[in-house]
# Entry
Amino acid sequence: MSEKSENNSKVWFVTGSSRGLGRTFVEAALSRGDRVAATARSTESFDDLIAVYGDAVLPLAMDVTDKEAVFASVQQAHAHFGRLDVIVNNAGYAQIGAIEELSEQDLRDQLETNVFGAVWVIQAALPHLRGQGSGHIIQLSSAAGLIASPLGGAYHASKWALEGLNEALAGEVAEFGVKVTIIEPGGFATRKGKNPDPLNNGHLAATNPVYDGLRHRLGALAGKQPAGDPEAAAQALLKIVDSDAPPLRILFGQGFYPMIQQAYTDRLKTWADWQTLSAQAQGTHP
# Structure
């Protein structure tokens, strides 16, 4: 463990810390001497961290969809450590299914966890960050928050919502000394060393056979992006939270960058190509 003093260490509040990138972020912060309130639905997975880091880690059993539990956990973390410096909204999952296949509950559950859960954490933490005049909110989005593909409509809806929500948030809290960064990871090897395949690892909606052909075609392409290293991502995150001028958005991994570039190029071209009709829609005639 680092010899970093408590006066110089940061205090983190990380959701979805039991596995995946969230777990790796927690380990990276603790290993350099920071202190972490690590949340998950069950705290058993933190026993090994407590054995190594003791009071530097505060395990909290919390479901982000439970607003009262979120506010209580944030308050407990602040009372325990005396401050909060880095808020990492990492909890979330992918709902997979064609739009026609999604049940109302599928969509509501996706938004409750990925969007509302993030909002509850932000709302609970902001009074503490404002009071300090400092803090950094890290929102885990996804390359799926920038581009969309078939069968991911619910997941895309949640991640695109988080993109807009946190961009607005950044403008609202800058004057209080609070920073916001949206991280957009590609695929990372967080499941048995393999690049995650969302068609197999997500929550699946009840299937309609009319989309089986599409599922088969996408399944053949899924997981083809090179898997990123979670530990490298954690080290990159440490650099972001230590930066005096962190980015509003940053991609973690370069595999999706050409696709995102092309998507934005296509959007700009489409808007340009249809400018005449756009002007007519406003009642003007260029």
Observations:
- The chain has two domains: 11-255, 258-286.
- Residues 189-200 have pLDDT under 50 and may be disordered.
